[in-house]
């Protein structure tokens, strides 16, 4: 899960923390559902934006 002490995540860190596939992360960013910013060539996801995105996902029961 996400770490409370981190200010931001790289794409790789976000993928590891959430289990969401890398291509899906980029798709969510492109579609505006997940906010990201750039620092040079690096794409970063702020912790608050990551948490907001995860909270916005619909809850589903696993059968």
UniProtKB/TrEMBL annotation:
Q: Which stretches make up the Helix-turn-helix domain?
A: 9-49
- Write down the superkingdom of origin: Bacteria
**InterPro entries linked:** HTH_17 (IPR041657)
Q: Which Pfam families does the record associate with it?
A: HTH_17
Q: What name has this protein been given in UniProt?
A: Helix-turn-helix domain-containing protein
Instruction: Record the organism.
Output: Mesorhizobium captivum
Q: Lineage of the source organism? A: Bacteria, Pseudomonadati, Pseudomonadota, Alphaproteobacteria, Hyphomicrobiales
């Amino acid at each position: 899960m996400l770490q409370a002490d981190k200010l931001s995540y790289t794409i790789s860190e976000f993928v590891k923390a959430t289990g969401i596939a890398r291509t899906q992360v980029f798709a969510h960013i492109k579609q505006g559902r997940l906010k990201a910013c750039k620092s040079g060539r690096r794409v970063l996801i702020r912790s608050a934006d990551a948490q907001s995105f995860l909270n916005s996902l619909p809850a589903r029961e696993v059968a």
